[in-house]
Amino acid sequence: MRFLITSGVVVLLTLSIEQPARAQDSDSWPQFRGNHQLTGFSNLALPERLKLLWTYQAEDAIESSAAIVDGTVYVGSLSGNLIALDLESGLEKWRYQADDGIGESSPAVEGEMVYVGDLAGVLHAVNTLTGKMQWTFKTEAEIRSSPVIANDIVLIGSYDGYLYGLSKHDGTLVWKTRFEGYVHATPAVLNGIAYLGGCDETFRGIKIDDGSEALTITTNAYTGASPAISSEVAFFGTFNNDVIRINLNTGEQVWSYEHPQRHFPFNSSAAIEGKNLVVGGRDKMVHSLNTETGEARWTFMTRARVESSPLIAHDRVYFGSNDGRFYVLDLHMGKKIWEFEAGAPLSASPAFASGRIVIGAQDGVLYCFG
Length: 370
Description:
36 strands, Methylamine Dehydrogenase, Chain H, 370 residues, five-stranded mixed beta sheet, five-stranded antiparallel beta sheet, mainly beta, 0% helix
């Protein structure tokens, strides 16, 4: 069962129950956070002490998180380039010039198409084999949300206040849904519904087939982070300095976590493995919470804010910090296992496939470890 909660009216909806999100396939990280539920989780292992395998120098800062499919890395930069690289060697395959810089919008790959938004408000669909544009769609303001492809629809948010549903084949507008503020977050998808919080202090569920609202909850908090979904429950941080859990069946806010001393916003998106939730904060810390109770398991202090969204892989946590370091922590204890000094802020999130982990830095260097 699911409830539509809007304007004080509760409507009962019947939907199928989905199992918890699966871990990402070893050879693929096709979109932001790796899968439709945005869990940022893989059940495969990397070496305990990583080695730097290669670097690639882009022409400007990399805030976009990479996608990895079929041995190819796709990443955008503020120079406006969408770049395709060989995962094994780091050699460039092709580059595509967007209309403006590519900010936080991260590529999504399906079939022979890769999709990404730019700061001119244009969504680009590019052929993965040739690097040639297939189609574009223009919104009315910058795009920082990452595209998600579900049911042949490309979902993309814009700072013009709309979440768009476009045909993945030709970019035709299927529907658009108005928010009362910027749409910054990337939607998480479950059972044909796209879930995301907005800059209008609401959390919504939007039906993918027609753009109608299935769920509307007032959160009283500006939200830039994307939700992570597991077992019909959504988790996300807010600019009200807390992380919240929402039951998608009832619309109930089950718990809210805020650090007792350090009150700072959460713009990082959470990673989930079982009862473990890990998220970065602007308080310079990474927080590990119990998904059932919202209680803190541990915190880890870096030297600057953590905008990078953590990745969990086989009892390890991987993330970047604006202190210029890439960290590996033990999932259960929060102890540091390894770190790498990049020398420039790492606000992008790591991507993992085929035994390799990739992350970009704000000085334009893309790193590959394995």
